[in-house]
Every structure is written in structure tokens, then in C-alpha cells.
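Please think about what follows:
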Amino acid sequence: MGLPQATSPLSPADYLARESEQPTKSEYFRGEIFAMGGASRRHVTVAGNVFAALDGALEGTPCRAYIADMKLRVLEDEAYFYPDVLATCDPGDHRAEQYVSAPTLIVEVLSPSTAAFDRGEKFATYRRIPSLREFVLIDPEQRRIELFRRGEGDVWTLHDIAPGAQLILDSLSTRVDWNRVFRNID
């Protein structure tokens, strides 16, 4: 998430109307709009690798993967984000044009300017989504993958994915090789 733009607070409806007319993307969080900056080559490559792996793995299932330009609505916090990759199994999401709202998986690729927000406030917001089962943070600079999985009683458990291991996504019954995630980032 970028820096807040100097505007008075907007309603979610005003944000959606404004966003559809803008040439660049911005996120909406608690009445504020945050301009999104461009991503690095490594960031884009990692997000593309994860999307491609999920897109192929989910073929023939009721689930679909979406990449960076699909908005996510978090009704519980009146927020709209653009996750790097998300997967949803909700039929309503597959027909939605502006945003999805019932993701099963969210993947965020970290960048130095957004890492603290992605790990903190954004993850706290994501945890309020009832359908969300897994949240993945990928650090392309340190080549680190962290998987957070929701368990009984809404307890989130961290699973560090070791280099060379597989990212096992129980929520989608699929796996992504660590090497596939970081392919072509050098």
C-alpha cells in the first residue's frame, strides 16, 4: 500500500466509482485512499509464478486464481485491496466484475515499502474474512515463504516453507514447489 492521497474521506461507493475512472490503481481502507506504486521485476515475477502454478492446478475445480488487478472487498472493515494473487471457490465471485469477497487463499508478495502493513494491519483485516483459510507472505529479496493457516477456533498457525520444499495449500488441495515460486527472479 502506498501513501495516502490528500483527499477527504470517501464512502466505499464513491471509491468504487472513482476507481473505475482512474488510470492507476488505489486501495481503500477505512475511508482513505492509498495510491499504489509500481512493483519491482522480482515482485511481478514471483506473483506471476504463483498465479501460473495455481491457475494450472485449479483447472477443473470450482476454484479460480486471480492476479493483481482483481479487487478484494473486505466488508467487515470497509476495505478494498488488490492482493498479488488470490483464489476463490465462491460461484458469486466468479461472476463478479468489480471485486471478489470470499477468497479461500490470499498471497501477498512483500516489498520494502509495504511489508509492515502487509504483515500487520492488512493481515489483521484479512483474518476477518470468514471464507479465508490460508494467507501466504512471500519475500522475494530473502526468498522466504510464510504460510498462515486458519485452524479450529480461528487460530492462525505459521508454517515457514523451507528452501526446496513445497508450499502445501490444504484449502485448495494443491502444492507449489518453492523453486517454482522463485523461478526467474535473478
